[in-house]
């Protein structure tokens, strides 16, 4: 099996085809930004982009991503190599408290903004509806995603 993670191609032994993508990312590639919140696909802390679409990595098997491109929070960056605009917006808007859900929220928001540079607040809420945050009350998260939209136009 071959998967591309953050632009780097990885060959994985077929014997591991039923291993969870989340475990592979965290344990084999040491990409620990993707979090294991519930391990059953409910909380959204483990969201990564697979071929540009937000997906939960805890319930995705390696065989399901064979031949696909995976983007994690570690692979997200701005044009100048610095943090991505959406990450900066989360900082600027105070959308980071405990930080556990943030990688999944950022990846979900990034996927939305790649498709729709200026979503409404309702569209943002709908996009992140399956991502649980126990700290912020979501207002700052919605503010951050909304604020980052203009950076996706170019």
Which characteristics define this entry?
alpha+beta, 5 strands, five-stranded mixed beta sheet, DNA polymerase, domain 1, 2 domains, 31% helix, 5 helices, 154 residues
Characterise the protein shown here.
The protein has 2 domains: 74 residues, Ubiquitin-like (UB roll) (Roll), CATH 3.10.20.30; 68 residues, DNA polymerase, domain 1 (Orthogonal Bundle). The longest helix is centred in the last third of the chain and has 14 residues. A hairpin with a 2-residue loop joins strand 3 and strand 4. The chain is of the alpha+beta class. The chain has 5 helices and 5 strands, in the order ββαβββαααα. Helix 2 packs across helix 5. 31% of the residues lie in helices and 12% in strands. A 5-stranded mixed β-sheet has the order 2-1-5-3-4, with helices on one face.
Topology, pairings included?
Blueprint: E1 2-5, E2 8-11, H1 21-28, E3 47-50, E4 53-56, E5 69-71, H2 85-92, H3 102-115, H4 121-127, H5 139-148
Parallel strand pairs: 1-5
Antiparallel strand pairs: 1-2, 3-4, 3-5
Helix pairs in contact: 2-5
